Amino acid sequence: xxxxxxxxxxxxxxxxxxxxxxxxxxxxxxxxxxxxxxxxxxxxxxxxxxxxxxxxxxxxxxxxxxxxxxxxxxxxxxxxxxxxxxxxxxxxxxxxxxxxxxxxxxxxxxxxxxxxxxxxxxxxxxxxxxxxxxxxxxxxxxxxxxxxxxxxxxxxxxxxxxxxxxxxxxxxxxxxxxxxxxxxxxxxxxxxxxxxxxxxxxxxxxxxxxxxxxxxxxxxxxxxxxxxxxxxxxxxxxxxxxxxxxxxxxxxxxxxxxxxxxxxxxxxxxxxxxxxxxxxxxxxxxxxxxxxxxxxxxxxxxxxxxxxxxxxxxxxxxxxxxxxxxxxxxxxxxxxxxxxxxxxxxxxxxxxxxxxxxxxxxxxxxxxxxxxxxxxxxxxxxxxxxxxxxxxxxxxxxxxxxxxxxxxxxxxxxxxxxxxxxxxxxxxxxxxxxxxxxxxxxxxxxxxxxxxxx
Length: 454
Hints:
This protein is an alpha+beta fold. The chain has 20 helices and 14 strands. It has one domain: CATH 1.10.630.10.
C-alpha cells in the first residue's frame, strides 16, 4: 500500500507513466486549456486512478473511486482562508460564507438540506416547469430582439447568465421586479470570493459589506411576508414555525441560493449549446427529433463538465484504491475524468445520448448538487426555446473561455439567431483562450463557492 505524506515535495515512488501524468496534470492545473477538456483526463482513470501530486495533493479519477471519495465522511470541503484585508473590509460576508452549508458538520448539513430538498425532487422540479417555461419564453423574446437590433447577441451574457437568477428568484418567492437583484447580488457575492484570491477570475464587481448587509436584511424580511405556497420562502417559513431551523439559518440558506445555481447553471447551459455546435451529426439528430433534449443535456455535460474538479480535505485518514491518505491531504476529485472512465462508460468519447449510466457531473454523496434536477430543467427548456431560432457563432476569434481549475466554460459566445443552426467547423475553430494560473488554495475557495448547496 502506498502512503502519501502531506508535507512531501512530490509523489512517493510513482511509475514512469504516473510521473508523466503527474507533470501533465500539474501543467493543466497551472495553465488550463480553454475550449477543450484536457486529453489527460481520458488517460487518468485507467493509468492512475489515484495519482499522488506535489505538496501532498491526491488526484482521484476513476468513476468508482471518485464516487466512493465523494461519499466518504473523512473528506470535507476545506475552509476558505480569506486574506486579512478581505476579513477587515467584508466581515459580515466572510462570517456568512464561513458558516454556510458546505462547511457545517455532517448532522447540521443534512438537517438543513432536508428543509430544501422537497423543491428539488423530481416531483418538486416538475411542478416548477410551467414557471420556468414562462421565464424562458420571455427571456428568449428579449434575446431575439437584441439580436435583431445588433445583428448578434452574446449567448452567455444575454441568455445563459440571465436565466438562472430569474428562475431562482421565482423559486425563492421574490416578486418579479426583484429578480434582477438576485442576479446582481449573487454575482456580487461570487465576485467577492473570486476577487479575494489572485488566481480566480472575478466577472463582476464584488459586493460591499454594506451591500451584503442590505441584502441580508431584505432576505430576512421575506421570512415574514406573504409568499406563494410553492416557494422556498414558504417552506422556510413553515420550517421556522416547526422549529426545524433558526431564523439565522433560514436567512443564510436563502442567501446561499442567490449565489448558487447561477454560475454553474449558466456554464452548463452554455456547454450544452457548444457541445451541439461542435457535433454536426448530434445536432442533426436533435433538430430532427431523433434525440430527446434531456438526453442531449446529460450527454453534453458528461463530456464537457463545467466543473472539472471537486476539492476536498481529508480530516481523517482514509484509503482509496491502494493509496493510504493521511489527514490533512488535499484530495482532488476529477469529475471530468470519472465521466470518461471506460470502466463505467463503454467507448467514453463517443456521443451516445440516452444510453449512458448516470455521470458524476453534479457530484455524489453528501455534497451532490441539491439543484441538479432544477439545473437540468432550465437547460432543457432553454435548449428547446433555441431550437426553432437557429444558432450560429459569428466570430470564432471572439469566443472566450473561462478555464481555470474551477470552471470550464465560455465567458463570451457571440452568435446570430435565425437561419437555422450552423455547426462549428472544429478544424478551423480558433476560439480565444482566456486562462490563468491557479493554485490549490484559490481552487478550494472557488470550489466552496460552487458547492454551497451540496
